[in-house]
Amino acid sequence: MDFTLDGVDKKARAGTLKLAHGKVATPIFMPVGTQASVKSLDALDLQDHLKAPIILGNTYHLYLRPGANLIQKLGGLHKFTKFQGNFLTDSGGFQAFSLKHNTKAHTEGIVFKSHIDGSTHLFTPSKVLDIQYALNSDICMVLDDLVGLPAPFMRLKLAVQKTTEWAKISLDHHKGHASRTNHIFAIVQGGIDSNLRRQSALELSALGFDGYAIGGLAVGESAQEMYATVAYTQEFLPKDKPRYLMGVGTPQDILEAIDLGVDMFDCVMPTRNARNGTLFTSLGKLSIKAQAHKESQEALDQNCACYTCKHYSKAYLHHLFKARELLYFRLASLHNLHFYLELVRGAREAILRGEYADYKSRILSVY
After folding, report:
1. How distant is the alpha carbon of residue 124 from its chain centre?
2. Which of 44, 61, 187, 207 has the greatest count of CB atoms below 10 A from its CB?
3. What is d(CA 112, CA 60) in angstroms, rounded to the nearest whole number?
């Protein structure tokens, strides 16, 4: 994998990731497209309006429906969805955690029952990668053992051991894979225990993956515990490889993590909040359902250049939300994702100028 650092401001990093479907300037936020679709948006929205260079898909869900073999037959995720940017797909480890009533441990991986039809499936490190190869993901996450917090020390220790074992199997399997356009990231585990995080980071770093994710956070710990864990873990990850904090988060979480050296993020927050009526603006969060917007001819954000703000008023969006019109979901999601993508683009520019501390302080004064 080709990853270069273009600038550093203390620990904050601005880099360029070269993948098969285009360059990705970091820090970057990846819109979440669980079912190979960012909810309410199409490929043209993502490419033309948002200029998103990479989005996230979900291995577990796409394996069950419509099936990895079908997607492969139809040309992989890029031809299937018409999105010509890059795809990162997660391994299914998070689904084993979030759908734990349908999963159980197995010596070779994770056994789960489909939430669709109750059928039983076994995810092994090799199978998870084979699914992602069929999807033709640009970045494939290897299978990990994710534990919710708080958790007993011995359970966290076991998770680190299993994650390292599965990472070794994944790397050996990947070396025999013909395509060189599918890159693999390992996932560091260990809860908020510093010794376990150090162990996991060092063991995985020694194996030589294309990139490294920090997983097992934003699953029950406090924000300060998360920041402290990220800060500590980063010290044991390779400086020349991209770093990805999974499933995070709020604008504050993202800015704090960039300050600690994180390059990549994903979260459902911007689109989920949009659908529920909460919109991010340069002046803070806005509830479009509030009656104060019923007759407003103003844009959501006077400082925003997104498609929605350039064309529609608060009054119209308020009406769409109240009427439960489907168009609302598209326009609100476009706005919130534009906010998040501009947040990280602004962070990158500030890093390159050596002014990241001022940029972060200015945004956090609102958020």
Report:
1. 22
2. 187
3. 10
Looking at residue 14, its amino acid is: A
Pick the last residue of a domain from 233, 266, 299.
266
What are the tens digits of pLDDT across the range 210-265? 999 999 999 999 999 999 999 999 999 999 999 999 999 999 999 999 999 999 99
Q: Are residues 255 and 183 in the same domain?
A: yes
Q: How many domains does the chain have?
A: 2
Amino acid at 243: R
Per DSSP bridges, beta strands 2-9 and 12-19 are: antiparallel
* The model's pTM: 0.96
Q: What is the pLDDT of residue 163?
A: 96
- The answer to the question of whether 216 is labelled as a binding residue is yes
Q: Which of 45, 90, 210, 259 is catalytic?
A: 90
Would you say 140 is a known binding-site residue? no
Q: Give the CA count within 13 Å in the CB-facing half-sphere of 34.
A: 13
Whether residue 259 lies in the annotated active site: no
**CA gap 164, 220 in Å, rounded:** 23
The Cα–Cα gap between 82 and 91 comes to 22
Catalytic residue flag (residue 6)? no
Whether 230 and 285 map to the same domain: the answer is no
Q: Which one is catalytic: 9, 45, 145, 266? A: 266
230 shares its domain with 305: no
Kindly provide the residue ranges of all beta strands, DSSP E only, lying in 91-210, ordered along the sequence.
103-106, 109-113, 120-123, 139-141, 183-188
Report which residue type is found at 285.
Answer: K
* CB atoms inside a 10 Å sphere around CB 190: 26
Expressed as residue numbers, the domain containing 195 is: 2-266
138 and 250 part of one domain: yes
**51 shares a domain with 176:** yes
To the question of whether residue 267 is assigned a binding role by annotation, the answer is no
Of 247, 266, 285, the domain-final residue:
266
Closest CA to 192 of 149, 247, 251: 149
Q: What radius of gyration do the chain's Cα atoms show?
A: 20
pLDDT of residue 100: 67
